Amino acid sequence: MSIINPSIKLITILLIALEISFTQNIITNLVLICCSILYLIFHKAITKGTLLVFTLAIIINRIVFSQNMYGNSFMGTILVTRLYAYIALGMTITKTTTIKELCMSFEQNLHMPTKFVYGFMGGFNLISYIKQDILDIKQAAYFRNMSLHFWSPSLYFKAIVSAIHYSELLAEGMESHGFSENSQRTHYQKMEIKRSDYVFSLALLIAVQIFLFLLLKHLTNINLSTSYNYVYNVVGS
User: Fold this and answer.
1) Separation CA 29–CA 77 (nearest Å)
2) Contact 36, 29 (CB under 8 A)
3) Segment 143-152 mean pLDDT
4) How many CB atoms lie within 10 A of CB 212?
5) What are phi and psi of 139, to 5 degrees?
6) 111: left (phi over 0), alpha (psi -120 to 50) or beta
7) 3 state SS of 73
């Protein structure tokens, strides 16, 4: 189970991601990336997929190369570090919090509609079954001397039919177990928001504000200097 309440963690991460979208601060982006990696290491959530995402430097570096040709290197660095910050922040949610914990927190802490929460969780739980159905559909087509590729419309049509069938089974199963959206439900696992969750969220947001605004004057001077040089070079040429 996640140490920090999933809802508090998600809201905090979304606020930080929204804020760095409208700022140009390389240091803040780098600090967020490093802190996110340390958080993943603490939770032992570093996997091969995580390393693969962070090693896509060849594709990412084309952004810097493009900015060097048609803009300036500062903006290229901003875009790259911001993109990596988004990825790192997102992984602190996806790698340390399960869908079940997140949905239970949505229902108990954010008081989202029960139908939406259980439908959301049921959809994620059905992904593995739908994948297996797609493999079965391809295998059945192979026996008929047909090849279904990922761009084949018939494959998507059959997959959608399979998903609709599963959704009907899920609805019937929930109804047979006495599910009612408006009735009071009991929970075997309580998702509580502790005082430490609020302290974590406030401390993280305050730390981001410090990096953003205490260094804003210094970075603004750099931006102005870079802009003046760029305009001078354009006018001079």
Assistant:
1) 10
2) no
3) 75
4) 19
5) -65, -40
6) left
7) helix
Is the predicted pLDDT of residue 233 greater than 50, yes or no?
no
Rounded to an integer, what is the distance from CA 182 to the centroid of its chain? 31
Please say whether the beta carbons of 101 and 6 come within 8 A: yes
- 15-54 per-position pLDDT tens digit: 999 988 888 778 888 888 888 888 888 888 777 766 766 6
Q: Compute the distance between CA of residue 196 and CA of residue 93 in angstroms, rounded to an integer.
A: 18
CA distance 175 to 171: 6
d(CA 168, CA 211): 50
3-state percent breakdown (helix, strand, coil) of the chain, nearest 5: 75, 0, 25
Token pair 């959809």 in the structure block, residue: 123
Please state whether the predicted TM-score (pTM) of the whole model is above 0.85.
no
Q: How far apart are CA 213 and CA 165, in angstroms?
A: 53
Give the Cα separation of 172 and 159 in Å (integer): 20
